[in-house]
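tool_call predict_complex ligand=zinc ion
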Amino acid sequence: MPMRKILAAAAIAAATLAAHAQTSVPNGPNGDNDSIASLRTYEQMVAALKSSVHTSGGAMRYDVLPWKSNGGREIPYVVVGKGATTALIIAQQHGDEMETSDSAVNLARTLSNNSMASTAIRNALTVIIVPRVNVDGFDGRKADGTLITDSQGRVPPWRQNYDKTFSGAGPVPAFYQRGRGYDINRYHAFRPECPLDNPNFPNITTGVVSCENQDLDSTKPYGLADLGKGNPVPEAKNIRWLADKYKPAVTLDLHHQGTRVNDGKMVTASTLWPTADATAQRLLAVDPKAMTRFNAGQAMAKRVVVIIAQTLAQYPYANLSLYPGGTEPGISRNAYGLLGSGSVLLELRGGIGTKSGGYIQKIGYHASYAVLHELARDAGLNGFDPNQAAVLVKPANGLPPNSGQGESEAITAGTVPEGDSDEHDDHHLGN
Ligand SMILES: [Zn+2]
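tool_result ok
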């Protein structure tokens, strides 16, 4: 069975299980987040966020992002606190990585309670949380209420967003699954003056210095030529919009790979800081401050990684390693690092639909909370030595992070000649 089918089957089983069992979530540090069911539908997620806002006594605010999903749904976020330093936490860019969304919803709820710890965080920080970036890739629905389908008739959850524009034969956009949509996490614009840039046009090397700035409307018909006008991925534009509005000191991107469906308790966590050094170097041609900005973001990210390592050392089932991530600048970890934020990937691996689903949620929650706790104490995280990141976190297989572009296809004019066919497993695995 292809990996994707196994994942899809497991995800459906997990969703069904959760719906019946109302799986509860392990206690957080304040023991108050154990009553929220996991694997929420879109409506349940929105209701959970609004309920938390309602009980927060004004500590949390609900809002929706400027661009709707192509399926026509609003993408919610919450803002907690009024502090001078901002942290941005995003989850579930990939629709089939659902436990991370629960981590984010539970974190929002804890941050808005009246404990001393949460109050201290709210006084020092403004925390922006987007618990489900990719709403369509999780449970997108048609107007008649049935689940969306790809061109093979398969239904979500799946990795990509929903944009079936290029379902026919011929070239497809870079990082695009034919008949389904884009990998959101390759489309984050990374130049300060180009918020609507398509980071893969004309390709991920020369695209570094190009700047496309039309607001491409992907809910309307558009073609390959339009890829040279602007960013075709509304979900990526949303996160960039938040980054511009709030200038986060720290950006945390939560991912989950459910590749080990029979894991039982074991969860493996991976993390990585921005690795787009070569892009920062190229950007110097058009932006003299690019390298300084990137280095600052990378150093901050490494301080965050040290906090994550120290926190997860308390959880023996979270066996932390360095994620072998690529250097593509459109990956959120790299893009927001290039914009100067301490931008960190936290990737959690373990079986979904098993007990480890709860562990995954818990790990994401505790790691995120610890980062916010320390950032509230010291906005510079000066007590954490960035040089310790590579000491504390080692590659699982002894290999360093991917030094290439992590991409086997040549990209020309923002497209690949044939792209993923519906029959092939997605090779853009991981973050
Ligand atoms: Zn992912």
